Amino acid sequence: MNVNHVNAHSIITITKLKNADFTINPYIGCTHGCVYCYAEYMARFTGHKNEKWCTFLDVKENYTFPDNKFQDKNILIGSATDPYNHFEKQFEKTRALLWNLTDSLAHIEILTKSPLVLRDIDVLSQIKDIKVGFSLSVDDELARLTEPFAPPPSERIEAMRALHAAGITVFAFISPIIPFFSDYQTIVKSVEKYASYVGFENLNLRGGFKADVFNVIREHFPNIFQRFASIYFSRQAFYKFWRIKEREIHEFMQTMEHLPHKMYFFHDDNKKD
Ligand code: SF4
């Protein structure tokens, strides 16, 4: 892993994502190596054109946190990195950032795959409105192939339980739903006691990582590969498959009346105009 410390002019960015006004990413790059990572295009725009995503990490330094309480704004921490990647244990950049937000009036969400967030219960509990979301896609066994360096999903669920017990609001982000592999119903049932809501995102395959995902499925699940690939063969096939899945999820979630859910299917729909 090529780790650099870089001067950052700012740490908070206006976003086109519909569910947020601002994003904060304390690092550029990630350590988890998810085969489906849609943030990999960032390498080209951050001075890492010839490096493979998840082989470098830039640690943002020397920024001035804005003197703004961001009243009623929605802030997402971790849209293009895991703020609790392996190096956060050493550098504590996310932890420092959270201390800057203790007097914030924003609605803040953090997205992670790591139980390292438990370290920060002290500061999390001082922030007025913060939710910690855990990304969950598949079971521990498949995650070894699709998220090889991330903590196993079972550890994330245990971290959700521990945060919830500590009075921190948590949510589950079932993302990406991988056709034929993600058992979203089992995941929902395993988090329903802790989650304040569940988000669902489908597997969108664009850019360079499409071939990587195809290779994993082809190599390890040759019997399923053709069916899997056919979903991504055309726009029409893609929308047909996911519209049906979307309905199926709505129907399932109606049986979980106490648990709200949000859909983040189709990336174009998730962006502001
Ligand atoms: S944790 Fe998120 S940012 Fe990191 S590699 Fe996985 S999908 Fe990409």
Summarize the structure.
By secondary structure, this protein is an alpha/beta fold. It contains ten helices and eleven strands.
Explain this structure to me?
This protein is α/β, with parallel strands linked by helices and 273 residues long. The chain has one domain: pyruvate-formate lyase- activating enzyme, CATH 3.80.30. It has ten helices and eleven strands. The protein has helices at residues 42-45, 88-91, 93-100, 121-124, 140-146, 153-165, 184-191, 209-220, 222-231, 235-254; strands spanning 2-7, 12-14, 22-24, 27-29, 56-61, 74-77, 107-112, 130-136, 169-177, 195-202, 261-263. The strands form two sheets. Strands 2-3-6-7-8-9-10-11 form an eight-stranded mixed sheet, covered by helices on one side. The longest helix has 20 residues, at 235-254. It starts with a strand and ends in a 10-residue tail after the last strand. The mean pLDDT is 95. Iron/sulfur cluster (SF4) binds next to loops.
